Amino acid sequence: MSQTAVVILAAGKGTRMKSRLAKVLHPIAGRPMIDHVLATSVALTPARSVLVLGGETTELVERLGQTAPAVETVVQEPQLGTGHAVLCARQALAGCDGAVLVLYGDVPLVRAETLTRLIAARRDGAVL
Q: Does the predicted model carry a pTM greater than 0.85?
């Protein structure tokens, strides 16, 4: 998987959750959602990992310093949707020539094994 880059989208405000806590910091199984996604990403051993954050990032950046210091962060400002969030990661991915896997920071139950099979299928020519 050394040529695969991972972009994790974590800029969502979580307004529907009616909480001041960033959506990806809400706990699932005793850990913030983002911790599960980061662990999955690390298990893929990507060439590069980029986390796209929203404007209010202090608490999330502090969390990252503890759990995933090797992940590069990019701020999406203004927040203009999912496609724009991926575009914000473009410069951080400069020089990567492999596939880019986009993960959502608020989808913590995707397993590394599933993503490994997805990446392998793509390498084998599957159109995804």
A: yes
